Amino acid sequence: MSVLKRRVPIAGAVVVVTGGGSGIGRLMAKGAAARGAKAVLVWDLSQDAARAVAEEIGQQARAVCVDVTSNESVAAAAEQALEEFGRVDILINNAGIVTGKDFLSVTEADVERTFAVNTTSHYRTVKAFLPGMLERDRGAIVTIASAAGLVGVARQADYSPSKFGAVGFAQSLRAELRHRGSNVHTLLYCPYYISTGMFEGVKTKFRLVLPIITPDTAARHVLDALEAGCQMKVDPPFVRAAQVAQALPVPVLDKLLDFFGINQTMDDFVGRSSGVDAEPRGADSEPRGADSEPRGADAELAERAVQSREGK
Ligand SMILES: NC(=O)c1ccc[n+]([C@@H]2O[C@H](COP(=O)([O-])OP(=O)(O)OC[C@H]3O[C@@H](n4cnc5c(N)ncnc54)[C@H](O)[C@@H]3O)[C@@H](O)[C@H]2O)c1
């Protein structure tokens, strides 16, 4: 195993993008297609959104309605991907949600759902495709985490820990792959805020060092980092300071975060006032597979989750 950076070619690759129906997922799916991917599988909870992106891309794309929190849904979608293409070369774990609630308003269901989408889904999707990657000794797993996975932020009591979990997941996976001498690549992406609408209303104090990133820039940076063989990218580069600052005494770290206005960023957060972020989902809901029936108040969500693939 080389210590040098191994580039990950997107041209010719079969790429899965979770949460590919919107935001940077949509742009990464489109970007991967533009860079010559053999196939781009747009996985999203919203069938309509996934279909719209697949239509934008054209023949290389498949729109797949997948709930990444469901074992059955992911297993069915993964099976279809492997049946049609024989392999998946690049998995981009991008699906994510946020409530933006203050600590006392965050419910147990909020916490469970946030972790289910942002963190534990990664185990499920990686387990679906890692065996094939290990067999071929190539492939890449991309974790879209967040700068909030490097430092805790006010009004992110569910989101930020879920992203710390995603960061830990990506680092542990990288460590284990290295330990076993595998050439399967991992990339961890930790961006500050991106203007996709997910964090609508957030504000930043110092735009020069901590700008709100445009979705196009974020998507391009992930694909560039992958092709360049990077293993971790923070965006903008100043986010690296958050990692370094963790080594400081807590009162100093807190003063620095105050200075940069980090805990005020969420004061005017509205997020997506409608859409999947706002949809309720019972903490006790069972994972649903391709053949499950919609149930109760969760019917619309379940209905979307049961359709495991929409061909073009
Ligand atoms: N927008 C930001 O400011 C920002 C900052 C840091 C990190 N991120 C991360 O980047 C990623 C993409 O964010 P975005 O801003 O493009 O958000 P977005 O809301 O535009 O896209 C998220 C997508 O995930 C999908 N999704 C949600 N739950 C799902 C589920 N259970 N199964 C399948 N798909 C599901 C949604 O339908 C949506 O299409 C997320 O992981 C987010 O946490 C975003």
UniProtKB/TrEMBL annotation:
Subcellular locations according to the entry: Membrane
InterPro entries: KR_dom, NAD(P)-bd_dom_sf, SDR_fam
Domain of life, per lineage: Bacteria
GO function terms (MF aspect): 3-oxoacyl-[acyl-carrier-protein] reductase (NADPH) activity
Protein name: 3-oxoacyl-[acyl-carrier-protein] reductase FabG
Region (Disordered): 271-312
One cellular component (GO) term of this entry: membrane
Keywords annotated in UniProt: Lipid metabolism, Membrane, NADP, Oxidoreductase, Transmembrane, Transmembrane helix
Listed transmembrane segments: none
Native organism taxonomy: Bacteria, Bacillati, Actinomycetota, Actinomycetes, Actinomycetales
Biased composition (Basic and acidic residues): 278-312
Main location: membrane
UniProt membrane topology term: Multi-pass membrane protein
Species the sequence originates in: Trueperella bialowiezensis
Record domain Ketoreductase: where: 13-192
EC number: 1.1.1.100
Single GO BP term: hormone metabolic process
Family listed: Belongs to the short-chain dehydrogenases/reductases (SDR) family.
